[in-house]
Amino acid sequence: MATTNSHSIKAYRNKSFLNSRGARSLRILSEYLEPESRLAHYRVSDTIVFMGSARILSREQAQANLAAAEAGEGDIEGARLGLEMSRYYEASQELALRLTQWSKQLNEEERRFVVCTGGGQGIMEAANRGASEAKGLNVGLTISLPTQEFANDYITRELSFHFHYFFMRKFWFAYLAKAVIVFPGGFGTLDELFELLTLLQTQKIRKHLPVVLFGTQYWNEVINFDTLIRYGTINAEDMLLMHRTESVDDAYEFVVGELSKYAEAERGATL
Fold first, then answer.
1. Rg (CA), the chain
2. Domains in the chain with CATH codes
3. Confidence band (pLDDT; 50, 70, 90) for 149?
4. N or C: which end of the chain has fewer CB within 10 A?
């Protein structure tokens, strides 16, 4: 009778090798091929990407934090600011809901302009929540972090992806996107925003990709684009890469107008 050698194992089942430095290229390739296969199975053609801070709370959470602070259990000024910022959570939720309702009316075999986020809390949760309330599929692209970020509860379970490599996660943001809406955020949001703007400016992304900066007051304080123009480090024409607004109605009309004009006939993922 043949015996099994405990040291004889097929390479694709060898976890020690697959997790080794030498197999890094296989792990990277897996973060391309597995999402591609699953997205194709659920007929997700392209997306509208929502970006923004995981720290922005829903109004209910922010009000609870303020009540606790006023009872002596926290920073009152910080809690008041958190309540003020919760308007962006509500805006993200409403905008995702309306865009999902619009995209579902296209009656195509493929699922077009599906809401996609980084899968975390805050602005991301709000967008997934809005899409879910509109009874639409939505995508979450989470990333493994030292603080361990969990996927929010509103992502379509079958379209929840978890990445190890930041650059593969950002690839899927850009590759599927037909529009990007950027709400107030920190280092991660700024990183994603500026990489997209650089790819558009240098025409590494050749498709028409409207970028909305939502929250005019916030972005005017955080990024002084006029200074960049004045010092000649960007051109005035580069500002045409972005549409800045504080209004859900304006953002909705702009995105739907751009998608109807440029993207409806251009199906599928592309750069």
1. 21
2. 28-56+87-262 (3.40.50.450)
3. low
4. N
